[in-house]
Amino acid sequence: MALPRLPQMSSLLRQLQRVLLLALLGLLLAGGRAAARCSEPAAHGPLHVASPDWREQVIYFALTDRFDDGDASNNDQGSGEYDPTDPARYSGGDLCGLRRRLDYIAGLGATALWITPPVAQQWWDGSHRYGGYHGYWAEDFRRVDAHLGTLRDYRELARALHSRGMYLVQDVVVNHVGNFFDWSGTGPTDDATAHYRANPDSRPHARPTQWPFSLNDPRRARDRRAAIYHWTSDITDFTDVVQERSGQLAGLDDLNTENPRVRRALRRSYGDWIRRVGVDAFRIDTAFYVPPDFFADFLRADERAAPGILRVAAATGRRDFLAFGEGFGVERPYDNSVSRRIDAYVRDADGAPLLPAMLDFPLYGSTLDVFARGHPSAELGQRLRALRARAGDPQRTPRFVDNHDVDRFLAGGSEAGLKQALLLILSLPGIPVIYYGTEQGYTVQRAAMFAGGVGAGGRDHFDTQAPLYRYLQRVIALRRTHPVLSHGLPEVLADNGAAPGALAYLQRDAAARALVVFNSADTPSLLDHLATGLAPGTRLHGLFAIDGDAPERVVDAQGELHLVLPPRSGLVWEVADTIAVPAATAAPTLEALPAATLASSVWIARGTASPGAHLAVVRDGDIAHAVTTVADARGRWQATLDLGGLVDADVAHRLVAWDGERGVASAPQSFRVAPQWRELARSDDPPGDDHGPDRGYRYPTDASWQGAHPLDLRAVRVLGSGTALRLEVELQDMVATWNPPNGFDHLALTVFVAVPGRDDGVRALPLQQAEMPAGLRWHYRLRVDGWNTAWFGSQGADAAHEGRALSPAPLLRVERDAKRLVLLFPAGSFGELATLSGLRLYLTTWDYDGAYRALAPQPAPHTFGGAATDAPKVMDDSAVIMLP
User: Fold this and answer.
1) Nearest CA-CA partner of 347 in 301, 302, 393, 290
2) What are phi and psi of 398, to 5 degrees?
3) What is the assigned CATH class of domain 491-578?
């Protein structure tokens, strides 16, 4: 479009007319662009709707930039921030893309959509070479980010959701903005400028554009007086509550949330999204990093100019606005320290309400351990028992199996385990959250769903016939048609304290009762003497089974059930009517054990049964590996048990004699073992050789990597007890900068095991761009880092695929003072071996963050340097260790 010729006039008037004409041209162009921008028809739903019964909702969580690109014209904003081949940059997903896929989301059964923060972002942080595509690096909390669309697009999304009877959940951040400055000090100082350094490569703006968050330069007296920020360095000790609440998290500029001006600005900013867009709930990021009392003010402040969020919501008709916080932390088994911290953000010390709910990270951790890593099912049972004692309303607590901050479940677990985990969160009280891509079998944390996005492989992934999509439809329908699953509190009836196996709980409300049973093992499990608490003769009507059907069952004369559970099963029964039951059948007996702890690796079990009865002597429910025997003419029996493969002296094992033909079991016996470890091999590694294959590799440049050598192997010691193996790995340094649940980070240790006599196996080191040394082929592979333990078989493995996920994974223990990782591989970890002799082990070090960390010619803050991008991702490795 050509500009009209300007008449002769003063220079000032000519400049003014040009400005006005350019502005008019911009509006015309913007209007034309808006008309062609998003092809979705206008939505006709209401902007404001009443709050739902949150107990009945199922949330679908989408990382907007990675979900769908409905408007390609907003992808590239010209700041070098857009590259759909680079996981650190924008891919192109937007609000229009979300709207055009609502039928896909609703078809799954979800009733609410949670989106990552849509606010204007720091698009690119050159100091860390990473972008704000994810939404958590705000520069203006009031504006929609240009990559995602416009305010109109956001309102249209809300209307489209509401027209379907669905709800909008917006992710919000109150702890920090983007990384606009660094603070390099190590202690308090009266000089706020002493350690300040502005980020030299922040795009598109050098500082936040929203007042008062723009007051971020302590070199200016006005900014210092405003005290909008904590002038502090990064958190280095996550056990120090002062650091946690005032330090920078991963370099992000920490807001002074004790400051009334900051609190007021945040209330105004986020209240406007409810008023202007019709948001129905908030998920609040990084809640642990602000004081708990902040949330009393944020939600309930009685200030006319900037009322609390719950007051704003109520004024729009939302009387039950849900605000749930993120308290990131995974507990060790049977530990409740994170749970207590989470509860402190729901209720204060006097019992006054703070946040209505918090994401259930403790349950997530135990779900992953049990269903992906093969931990004893009792670890999950303990979490379920604890629900009754937790603060807040368990029926409004969001529960999940993976999200954008942790590895995908399928990164280390099997599809069978994922199905169990999904059934668990959908058969418990609380609000189930489904992370986008889970229904398509995603293994990569933040891969795109649309063809043009990063990691999508050039095709869309909105397949409504995908097996996991169809499975989720079934499970969500089960929850919706049987409210007892969402309204009741679980009463744990049985679990397995020694191994993968049974977990059973009863759900009850005023109208119904349902029995939910899992077998987390990859082999059949015996669940004997299940005390149901139901009347003898109670009939159980099958409602659901992960595979096949849940057959009808009847409670016996003792009020018990005896079940042989298929591998990886999940079953749901409805308590129905009562029928007559026959008299009880005589059960076999099992003689008392000679001691509570058995030192011998072999023990003979004895007992009585009906003459000629065929018995299985079952340890820890593992009926697939039971020792079978037959009672003699006098009804006596005995069986020789091999206990040499049991590795943990702290675990109580359970033994029972099972008469499968008659469906009866002996009273159980409990025992422990004292494993006899002997050293099989040791390999010492020279110090200072953590520099890659050609000794030219360098660590990343971020400060957290400096001064330590966490990838430097020092020694590997191998011990055996029967066919169980203990691996002790000593390191030069051990760090835990990012507060990882496993107690260390900046290290991914990968262990490869070659089994003698096998002609299969894989030479490639998956995802590490290298091969096994000396022509070896591996058959089993362990990847362990600060957040995950993943155990694989070589089936399906190659350079780009990790192989078949196995369970149970080896047990990990961390001895920080000794800088040692201890890995316990139970008997059977390497197949049905008679001996460990001939096994060969090979270990490598690198780092892992959703994938093995990148390598480049020059190091970057979180990229290794010193070699081509396709060079081996091996910083240090062991010699090949062959067991005698």
Assistant:
1) 393
2) -70, 135
3) mainly beta
* Token couple for 487: 């309204």
The residue ranges of DSSP E strands in 88-245, in sequence order, are: 112-115, 119-121, 124-125, 130-131, 138-144, 167-173, 181-183, 196-198, 202-203
How far is the first Cα of the chain from the last one, in angstroms, to the nearest whole number? Answer: 82
The pair of three-digit structure tokens given for residue 712, joined into one six-digit string: 């430097």
Q: What are phi and psi of 505, to 5 degrees?
A: -145, 150
**pLDDT single digits (tens) 478-498:** 999 999 999 989 999 999 999
Q: Which residues of 664-674 are buried (b: 16+ CB within 10 A; e: fewer)?
A: bbbeebebbbe
Q: What is the token pair recorded at 881?
A: 């260790």
What residue spans define the domains of the chain? 491-578, 597-673, 678-882
Is the confidence at residue 158, as pLDDT, over 80?
Answer: yes
* pLDDT surpasses 90 at 596: no
φ/ψ of residue 608, rounded to 5: -130, 160
| AA letter at 56 | E
pLDDT tens-digit profile of 827-855? Answer: 999 998 999 999 999 999 999 988 999 99
Q: What is the pLDDT of residue 186?
A: 59
DSSP of 780-809, one letter per residue?
EEEEE-SS-EEEEESTT-BTTB--EE-SSP
Say if domain 678-882 classifies as CATH 1.10.1740.10: no
In the structure, how many helices (H) and strands (E) does the chain have?
A: 15, 47
Give the distance, in angstroms, between the CA of residue 188 and the centroid of all CA atoms in the same chain: 35
The fraction of the chain above a pLDDT of 70, given in percent, is 95
Q: What is the pLDDT of residues 504-554, one digit of tens each?
A: 999 999 889 999 999 999 999 999 999 999 999 999 999 999 999 999 999
Q: What is the topology classification, in CATH, of domain 597-673?
A: Immunoglobulin-like (2.60.40)
For residue 196, give the 3-state DSSP assignment.
strand
| All residues at 6 or more sequence positions from 686 whose CB lies less than 8 Å from its CB, including other chains | none
Q: What is the pTM of this model?
A: 0.92
The whole-angstrom separation of Cα 92 and Cα 147 is: 7
Q: What is the DSSP string of 360-420?
A: -HHHHHHHHHHHTT---THHHHHHHHHGGGSSS-GGG-EEES--TTS--GGGTS-HHHHHH
Q: Residue with structure tokens 């943990």?
A: 648
Burial of 870 from C-beta contacts in 10 A (0-12 / 13-18 / 19+): exposed
Nearest-angstrom CA–CA distance, 275 and 283: 17
| Alpha-carbon span 876 to 874, nearest angstrom | 6
CB-based contacts of 368, cutoff 8 Å, min separation 6: 401, 402, 409, 413, 421
How much of the chain is helix, strand and coil, in % rounded to 5? 20, 30, 50
pLDDT at 187: 53
**Residue 2 scores a pLDDT above 80:** no
Pick the closest to residue 881 from 837, 846, 847 (CA basis).
Answer: 837
**pLDDT tier for residue 95 given thresholds of 50, 70 and 90:** very high
Task: Give the whole-angstrom CA distance, residue 28 versus residue 555.
Answer: 75
Residue 683 has pLDDT above 50, yes or no: yes
What are the residues facing 252 on neighbouring strands? 249
Residue 1 has pLDDT above 80, yes or no: no
Higher-pLDDT residue of 454, 18:
454
Which residues are paired to 776 by β-bridges?
Answer: none
Question: pLDDT tens for residues 61-71?
Answer: 999 999 999 99
Nearest by Cα to 132 from 114, 113, 116 = 116
Coil, strand or helix at 625:
helix
Q: Please give the DSSP secondary-structure letter assigned to residue 449.
A: S
What's the one-letter identity of residue 869?
A: T
Collapsed DSSP state (helix, strand, coil) of residue 682: strand
